User: Fold this.
Amino acid sequence: MIEFGNEWDAMLKEEFEKEYYQKLRKDVAEEYKNHTVYPDMYDIFNALKYTSYSNVKVVILGQDPYHGKGQAHGLSFSVKKGIKAPPSLKNIFKEIKADLDIDPPSHGELTQWAKQGVLLLNAVLTVRASEPNSHKNIGWHIFTDNVVKLLNERQEPMVFILWGANAKQKAELVTSPHHKILTAAHPSPYSANNGFFGCRHFSTTNQFLESVGVDPINWKIDE
Assistant:
């Protein structure tokens, strides 16, 4: 039984009983049994564990977990301390420097953001080692779509940050006028120059939060 230790327990109880999720659970268990899969089984739902429903101020939607050893730990774009920051994360830090003049940290763990209300959610929550998008069609997208729908229903405004084509597909699920959607190219080195650099999403997010009476995010990560 999955326990988040916050409001998500009650909100997702029925989700875990649905037929699609029961199949997903079995398929994921088989994957962990027969292959090397990331993140660690106990880290799959860290985004929801760290950021409770009513605490969400910002959603940063990733694609699927990093597929290298020791990188993924259940938060989109984040890697544990001691692990070299991947290129996409380095580009995120570059944009924060350009946008807010905050120097990049020496590590890539974004837990501090999560604890402030940044839901670092991947569209797909597991991946085979060295096989990006290998769990794309396993059923996670149904689960994360429904998480986004639940967030959309909330009256309190939040910001949805959608980078890249896969993340932008979730935009149609955000129909409430209370919320703000920010889209740009993915921070990957292959696309960052096509509209990610210069998007200023971090300052724009804080301006929106302050405009609706919500404390802004401190994007500076402590060492």
Observations:
- The mean pLDDT is 97.
